[in-house]
Amino acid sequence: MINGNLVGFVMVIVSAVAVALPGYLFRLPDAVTMVGVGVVLIAADIGLRLTRRGSEKWLMGQQTGGYLIFIPVWTFGIAMIVLNLVNALIIKK
User: Containing domain of residue 77, as a range?
Assistant: First the structure.
């Protein structure tokens, strides 16, 4: 069973569609497209969490934003950005 919430799942799907479709249409490199998905994930999740800033554990709480497998969605966004920057800038193919 995959743990998470519907908000986190929707954030991942919407950010992927919102960035991948223009990336495909404009033929952007994969790394650029995936960094864009990471930025949208971070912005969506942090934006939602900032609206609940007064509550306890607003940045890391499971009830204040999206999460997947007990990890906040914004951390997936950071990981996506870092991995794709490393892939594009450091690893030469």
Answer: 6-89
